[in-house]
Specification:
By secondary structure, the protein is α+β, with helices and mostly antiparallel strands. Helix 2 packs across helix 3 and helix 6 packs antiparallel against helix 7. The chain folds into 2 domains: about 55 residues, Arc Repressor Mutant, subunit A; about 190 residues, no CATH class.
């Protein structure tokens, strides 16, 4: 465990300039630009301030300030969303993390779900005690997003409607079909509900399984949404999908071209 040590007058002035000029995290290139020094010198300064306990290294080339009240530099990330934006942009916070933000679930998820156009080698990573799960998406799928200010940093999160479409595209983004279904039902009873937008997003995402899952769930749990159910039927694509690709499927619901688990048959 490191110990925070003193900093000279020049060092304090430089570090203060960096903190003022950056948004939640400091990269080597930003430090070089702000301090008007070569990148190699900036890297050495950041490493030195890290050794002294004034900065904490997040990943290679990226640092965060250590809060003044902290007695050790070994501190968790204050805002994981900021780090996600700095490391994985273009990206957005999605799935269960977005559902939490929009109050579509009461579950507490300890992993931050990040949808990114990057193609990282590792999809499950831990940064200073915070777990991230990364999902790669195409650039055309970067829609239906809301900017959220976290301090000085603007971070994108899928809006409530886009969050539901993502869950219908891949139920694992909600932790599985059961919690994804609960999030859908909470959405339908919330002031964020917008069925026209939901259909528009589903069309734009262009994943046929979305209409199969959404239509089936609406028919079962929200039969009053007759117009949307009809649109889902009209938009059905050929081929068959599973209600949840992670689960076994024993029964084919032919009208939705959807395989569902036996447990769901018994509930009907």
């Amino acid at each position: 465990m490191g110990v925070i040590s003193g900093l000279g007058k020049v060092g304090r002035k430089r570090l203060a300039a960096l903190i003022r000029g950056t948004k939640g995290a400091i990269s080597v290139s930003e430090a070089a630009d702000i301090l008007n020094v070569p990148p190699a010198d900036a890297s050495k300064m950041l490493a030195r301030w890290t050794n002294k306990g004034w900065l904490s290294r997040v990943r290679r080339g990226l640092y965060v300030p250590v809060p003044l009240e902290s007695r050790t530099p070994d501190v968790p990330i204050e805002d994981p969303w900021i780090i996600a934006e700095r490391l994985f942009a273009p990206c957005y916070i999605g799935g269960w993390s977005a559902a939490e933000y929009w109050d579509l679930t009461e579950q507490i998820f300890r992993t931050v779900l990040v949808m990114t156009i990057q193609k990282p080698r590792k999809r499950d990573i831990n940064i200073k005690g915070t777990s991230y799960k990364l999902r790669t998406i195409s650039e055309r799928a970067m829609f239906g997003l809301k900017p959220v200010w976290r301090g000085q940093m603007k971070v994108f999160v899928s809006d409530a409607t886009r969050t539901i479409v993502d869950l219908m595209s891949d139920p694992s983004l909600g932790g599985g079909i059961r919690p994804a279904m609960d999030m859908l039902r909470n959405y339908l009873s919330s002031d964020k509900k917008d069925m026209n937008l939901l259909i528009d997003y589903a069309v734009k995402l262009n994943n046929g399984a979305v209409f199969k899952r959404l239509g089936f769930l609406l028919e079962r749990y929200a039969p009053e949404e007759e117009d949307s159910i009809k649109i889902c039927k009209d938009k059905l694509t050929t081929g068959y999908s599973k209600l949840d690709p992670k689960l076994g499927a024993d029964k084919l619901i032919t009208r939705w071209r959807l395989w569902i688990p036996q447990s769901w048959v018994e509930e009907n």
